[in-house]
Here is the input.
Amino acid sequence: MKKINLAVVGATGMVGRTFLKVLEERQLPIENFYVMASSRSAGKTLTFNGKEYTVEELTEHSFDKPIDIALFSAGGSTSEKFAPIAAAHGCIVIDNSSQWRMDPEVPLIVPEVNPEDIQWHKNIIANPNCSTIQAMVALKPLDEKYKIKRVVYSTYQAVSGAGVAGWNDLENGLKGEAPKKFPHAIANNCLPHIDVFLDNGYTKEEMKMVNETRKILHNDAMRITATTVRVPVFNSHSESINVEFEKPFEMAELLETLRNAPGVVLQNDESKNEYPLATDATGHDEVYIGRIRRDESVESGVNLWVVADNIRKGAATNAVQIAEEIIKNMQ
Ligand code: A2P
Here is the structure.
């Protein structure tokens, strides 16, 4: 297998550190490895595969050396500036920020769902929003079979999705300290406010779910609405997803479809109080689905409870899976 040169940009962050862990676990064939972050972290060391690597400051010259793939998770403005520089040097950027996701020139990929879209990349590939990724793994097999007409998302999102600062706000908030990252205390509150408010009254996070779902499922007409909520959970996002189909379905067949879907684990036995939990999903790469029940208020619809580790499948693992697809195509 061809060995590649790989860089992690934002390596000191919440997702960045998980990139290193997932790359180690999945044993990507790496020749030269680079870790980059802001000037604040330059000179610090990070351990990868038992070896110490010094964090480099990300600059316009960082991609002068030959780098095949760069995994970016350093915020939108960093991606806006540096992803095109890397791409112009022939490096394929897999970007975790929202900066490039809706750009028509940039594929938005969940490897279990639309790997075919990787082929038309122009050196930048976007990793979807964490909440969208886990929803797509659940909805794609159902869309193929029953054609989705409408989706209502309600999310219960962990603080790790807001990075180290979000995590600290919950940890310190539980000790009575005032919040620094969120506009209100996250300890003991659910905040119906993720990312900024837009002119239509929705938050940017809500519109990410709407727009990214349409792009990934290749259906601009799909009717979708979302309410995204930050909850006092450290890690793993939970989602209630209400889906309406064009076609009728049998529950046994729908369950079988989900059971056989790539990346899905069913936890759907209410007789044992079994349903997906954030604490169980944490540290895993699968998307857990349960509480599956017919929506009796419409002709053909279903309710799902969908949980996944937002830092792993919702960010780092999904990006590393994209890198694996690219490496496969390089052989
Ligand atoms: P640093 O640690 O040097 O600030 P998180 O979302 O968990 O807070 O992580 C954000 C990541 O993005 C960190 O690795 C952070 O590096 C990095 N980062 C933030 N701003 C920049 C920048 N201007 N250039 C490079 N990396 C950045």
Residues 10-14, 16, 37-38, 40-41, 58, 74-75, 78, 163-165 surround adenosine-2'-5'-diphosphate (CB under 6 Å). The radius of gyration is 20 Å. The chain is about 30% helix and 25% strand.
